[in-house]
Write a structure and sequence with these properties.
About 25% of the residues lie in helices and about 30% in strands. The chain is of the alpha+beta class. The structure holds zinc ion.
């Protein structure tokens, strides 16, 4: 097999992206995206490793964008530095819209269109923690294919989503008939190369058609829409979690407390789980203004 071919898409006067491709043009196309969020180094490192050390491919070809939002990467931020927009809420985009909408349009039309599988690689970032997981559409024929890919990766959690919220890479993929999968890594200030390596081994197994690494232990279900289906702080202060990402908690049990340092005599406010399930996202940064997202939950899949 020859190595990756590199090309630039987009521009001039518009967003540009570097795309890396390898494999026989007749074969089903798998797209791997890193860097949709510019402050999530782990996904960019996974994508980079695929190009730097090409995997063995069996029955598929591969298209990799290592940095899907170069403006956000330059600034080291979640959103585009140019217009402060979240690329992951801008799909399918608009070729005549804002910079980020044009970037989403470029990715939709030039990277996702014609693909068979999308694997969008993220991590929980600075403010949150997540267990190592794959998430996938779980309904319809596209969902069945997406869950198969998710299982083939062999990551500890597989999160089933009956539907995909709009604006995402995954929603654009679903509309195009591309099986939509994403990966989330635990996050934090320093990229965890052991986790990056584990995701790489999962991708190698899937792309190479070998059996999944033993690692998938829990399949859970939920919307996965962290804008909506999330437990928010009902007090202003400092959040002290009493659980870890991935833990199984019962409905009504405490997952932490919020303490107000401005009112030392006020009692700590208990934060309780609204449902029984696994903690799929947990606030890492202590300062939580009222309404801050604290946690989200995945219930065991039927
Ligand atoms: Zn992300």
């Amino acid at each position: 097999m020859t190595g990756f071919q590199r090309r630039t898409i987009g521009g001039p006067g518009a967003p540009t992206l570097t795309v890396h491709e390898v494999g026989d043009a007749d074969l089903p196309l798998v797209v791997v995206l890193g860097g949709v969020h510019g402050d999530e180094p782990e996904g960019m490192l996974v994508a980079r490793s695929l190009v730097a050390r090409p995997p063995t491919l069996r029955g598929v070809r591969l298209r990799v964008v290592t940095v899907a939002n170069p403006s956000a990467y330059d600034a080291g931020t979640r959103v585009s530095a140019i217009d402060q927009a979240n690329l992951a809420r801008s799909f399918p985009g608009d070729g005549r819209g804002s910079w980020t909408e044009r970037l989403a349009h470029l990715l939709t039309t030039e990277v996702l269109a014609g693909a068979d599988v999308l694997i969008d690689v993220h991590s929980a970032g600075l403010h949150f923690a997540m267990p190592l997981l794959a998430g996938a559409l779980s309904t319809g024929p596209l969902g069945a294919r997406a869950l198969d890919v998710g299982r083939a990766l062999g990551l500890p959690f597989l999160w089933h989503h009956p539907e995909i919220a709009p604006g995402r890479t995954l929603s654009a993929a679903e509309t195009l008939g591309v099986a939509p999968i994403y990966i989330e890594m635990p996050g934090g200030p320093t990229a965890d190369m052991e986790i990056v390596g584990r995701v790489r081994r999962g991708l190698d197994a899937y792309l190479g058609g070998s059996s999944a690494p033993a690692g998938l232990t829990r399949e859970v279900e939920g919307s996965g829409d962290l804008d909506q289906e999330v437990l928010r702080s009902h007090a202003d202060g400092l959040f002290l979690p009493g659980v870890r990402a991935g833990d199984l908690v019962g409905a009504g049990t405490s997952i932490g407390q919020i303490l107000d340092p401005l009112e030392p005599s006020a009692a700590p406010v208990d934060v309780t789980a609204p449902v029984s399930g696994h903690i799929m996202m947990l606030r890492r940064t202590a300062r939580v203004p009222l309404g801050t997202a604290l946690a989200s939950f995945g219930v065991p899949a039927a």
